[in-house]
């Protein structure tokens, strides 16, 4: 488990899905998520067989938000140019957290050395 540092200074629990299997599984089979899930590397997501709507933030290699959208279940998102990571949370969370286009988030702990360590490891 890692920590997501938001632009507001607030921290949240963060799961990181780095393996192909973990990225494929994502939030499938769950009824919700505490905090957020980071899929890395990733440039698109789908919500086929999901039980709830999610907010999706597409991040570049420096963890800057390229775009945010809400996806209802049974949707397929288009790949985003320049996206290297995808952050998922329950619908409405990104707005409450201040996560919007242009802001930068940080990932801490959970085997990572600190802010920016995802960009320094070539997207892992």
UniProtKB/TrEMBL annotation:
<dbReference type="InterPro" id="IPR003795">
    <property type="entry name" value="DUF192"/>
</dbReference>
<protein>
    <submittedName>
        <fullName>DUF192 domain-containing protein</fullName>
    </submittedName>
</protein>
<dbReference type="Pfam" id="PF02643">
    <property type="entry name" value="DUF192"/>
</dbReference>
<dbReference type="InterPro" id="IPR038695">
    <property type="entry name" value="Saro_0823-like_sf"/>
</dbReference>
